[in-house]
Amino acid sequence: MKLSAHYNKASIIATVTVLIFGAIVYFFAISYISKNQIDQDLSEELEEVIDYVNAHHQLPKSVDFDEDQTFFFKTTQKSFKTQFYDSVYKNPKENRNEAGRTIAALIKLNEEYYKVTITISRESTEYLIQIIAAITLGLMTVLLIILFLTNRFVLNGLWKPFYILLNQIKLFKVSETTDIKLINSNVDEFNELNNAIQIMASRVKTDFQHLKNFTENASHEMLTPLAVITSKLDTLIQDETLRPSHYKQINDIYAATNKLSRLNQSLLLIVKIENNLLDDVELINLEKLLIEKGRQFQELISSKQLTIVTDLKRKEIRASKYLIDMLLNNLFSNSIRHSANHGEINIHLSDTYLIFRNSGLQALDAENVFLRFQKGKHSEGTGLGLTIVQNICSSNHWAISYSFQNAMHSFKIVF
């Protein structure tokens, strides 16, 4: 859920809660004021009755009252506290009962006591309250609509610089020369955020460039002495004065030097993959490339007398030709290296996945098989082949997994 949605939700809930609470308080306040006003009118009517009795020494006639319903009851009570209460008002014109309000009191006439009740209708007051409640509800609805629209459009405009900056961050690539552009905003916090991100991006690019230069320089400078060592070993191994025991030592040095050279190239490749420095993306016919790789590795396959079983369907992908070539090289090499003599290699390509299976006696560590420098005890590889495979898959947003079933190693890539 976006920040604006969170804000709208919280704002509307808070506003609705306050409005409902305010409407309830407002309703009871209007009801209380209206009731007090009616009680005041009843008190005035009662005062008029008492004044009339004191002036004329008789009870007023019913015709002396407008729409008030006044009744007198002779009573033996000599004391009675004036009371106000809700009652029923009988409307003589419309011949129906309405909500009413009554005052009851005691008056004295010629040494006799009378209980007087005066009732007036509350319908007009209740109707007024209903109108006020309807208007209040309408205003609440309009206010909520205005609040929602204001939050929606004003907040979207207010947060526009943030989303522009966010899109720039998403498209930011440390290997490219483009920088994050400065965004002009009236909000100080957005300007501070923009400046902080620009500083951070500049530092990241500087650090990346230093690391890139160091890696390339170190790799390049390492190749020269390795080439010299290899050249000297080639010259030395042709020396006829060497003893047989020296040949073995020179061969060991030669193998270690070649391994160091491959290790250097593999580490450099991993750095390039992890930092997206290889962008030679093109359309690749994976089926055709697998067939070509099978022919290239045919000599190694024949040397171990392996059986190759393929089930290939036409599949085209967009990726770096160099990286896909490295991926297939490592998968073929890994399958051949870890297959026993007279073993079997199965390759299955469909529209959604690629599977390499090869026979084996013991399962690999599934949790660590893709970690750097993980290899078998008797392996002559660098221990980086499957790491390179995983990095290539990750850079292309593919999933790769390893399993071991029925004495078969299986590497599955899901496109």
Structure description:
The chain is of the alpha+beta class. The protein has 3 domains: 1-144, no CATH class; 190-273; 279-414, Heat Shock Protein 90 (2-Layer Sandwich). It is 55% helix and 20% strand. The protein has helices at 3-56, 123-158, 160-171, 188-237, 244-274, 286-296, 298-303, 321-337, 385-395, and strands spanning 69-75, 83-91, 96-109, 112-121, 281-285, 307-312, 316-320, 344-349, 353-359, 399-405, 408-414. The strands form 3 sheets. Strands 6-8-9-11-10 form a 5-stranded mixed sheet, with helices on one face. The chain has a 4-stranded antiparallel sheet with strand order 1-4-3-2. A hairpin with a 4-residue loop joins β2 (83-91) and β3 (96-109). The longest helix is centred in the first third of the chain and has 54 residues, at 3-56. It is an enzyme of class 2 (transferase). Its EC number is 2.7.13.3.
Q: Keyphrases for this structure?
A:
4-stranded antiparallel beta sheet; 415 residues; 5-stranded mixed beta sheet; 55% helix; 9 helices; 20% strand; Heat Shock Protein 90; alpha+beta
Helical stretch tally: 9
Q: Approximately how much helix is present in the residues? A: 40-55%
Mean pLDDT: 82
Q: How are the strands of the largest sheet arranged? A: 6-8-9-11-10
Estimate nothing, just give the exact number of structural domains.
Answer: 3
Structural class: alpha+beta
Task: Note the beta-strand portion.
Answer: 15-25%
**Which regions are unreliable across 5 or more consecutive residues at pLDDT < 50?**
none
- The span between the termini is 29 Å
Q: What is the 3D shape?
A: rod-shaped
Run of helices and strands: HEEEEHHHHEHHEEHEEHEE
- Largest sheet, strands/sense/barrel: 5 strands, mixed
